[in-house]
Amino acid sequence: MLLEDQRFLHEDLERLEQGISDRTLEDPRHIRDRLNRDHQISGFLTRIQQQSKRLLDIYNDTEGLRTKEIQSISTGDPFDEFYKQLNDIKDFHRRYPNEPVENLERAYKRKAPGEGESATAEIDHMFTGEEAYGRFLDLTRLHEDYLNLPGVQSRRVTYLQYLTIFDHFTPPHCPIKRSEKATDQYFNYVGNVAEYLEGFLRRTRPLDNLDKTFATFDQEFEKAWEAKEVPGWGSETQSVGPTAPVTEGTGEGIWCPDCEKEFKNDNVYKSHLSGKKHIKAAGSRKADTGGTTNSDTNGRSSTKTSASSTAKNLKERAIAEREWRIRKYASTMETVRSDTRVNVERRQGMTERERQQELDALFAESAEPSLRPSGAADDDSDSSDDEKIYNPLKLPLAWDGKPIPYWLYKLHGLGVEFNCEICGNFVYMGRRAFDKHFNEARHIYGLKCLGITNTTLFREITNIEDALKLWDKIARDKKKEKTGGENVVQMEDAEGNVMPEKVYY
Asked: Is 387 left (phi over 0), alpha (psi -120 to 50) or beta?
């Protein structure tokens, strides 16, 4: 009965469109309800595509079954065909008496809280507690994998620092050398990071055309790889002779690509060329880059070398592609990334009890709409639109969007302004924020612009004039101490003790 299937598909498509329009008119307040609505709409759109494909196959009628059924109805006695189909239906239900009947009217209707299944059952198991329904990233497991990579084990990278550098794969942020990236451990690590970020995007943006975006990333990578413009995977050139490129490191000295070390003195660089460490590093680098050896004259050895070089290039390309994807994914989630850093820094200053209270409040807020009756929910939603937060004292807002208590505002001294001229006359509210900013990038960059390198001695100094005076005094004291130490006359007593002339007399 293709005509009945055709009618059923048309009804299904109309019900799906009605379900999408009903959910589009909703404006959930909580992020969990909003994500649940988007995922339901995404599922409806997928089903529309599937049902439309089935409907087109029926209309195309490649096997001629639809035309044959129409002819059987339009020719001959219509009652014979009617009773024939009626007997087929009765026979089907006689053989399958418990066959459920799909009610399209209720299939895509919004379920009320009291109808059994939870309204957000699809979202509850999608995110971890740290992700907070897609508001933050959860890279704790990937951070542990990063700390166990070769080249990183000697460095202590905190989780907060990792959130800043996880998409950097070139020096100085990434200490892993190019030769160490060819390991299976690093390959699995970048694969896991790319897989997590892609899954996070699909979970938090179900209505976006992500496949098209990912295809654009792949096309950009193909062009960059052909032009050898992928960061960290450009063509390597072997330096010969005493002169070396000056484009890496700080750019002030001479860079040795074999040892991956910078020399500020030309004589030191020339003398290290004959050292065992440099010769060993140059040999290993030459072998990694597929340098020619004497055995290449043999045909079999040349074939093995070319095969291993091809396999290595393919693996490097796969690793570079994953690194490229991670950069692109991170650039599209810059807001979530910054929110994650703020959240991690905020939670580090909380006690375990405060964290638990915050989680309880989050779950209570998310479960609150589901406990209301349907009529009351509409009334509350109408009244909440007109409700404004009463905040005459202009207090800062807490994580729930409400002003913090006034006693807490006074306790932390958030009403006191601290101006820092070194940071470009930036104003910090509260003593805590003012103390923390001395270790932040803005203040350190301002000191470096003044020519000050030792920033640890300049805490509590906010004026440019005072900072310059202190830096000049430190420079004079160091110079005076150095010259004074050189002019000290050493004396030796009868017992062989060496001391300055002033102490001796």
From this structure: beta
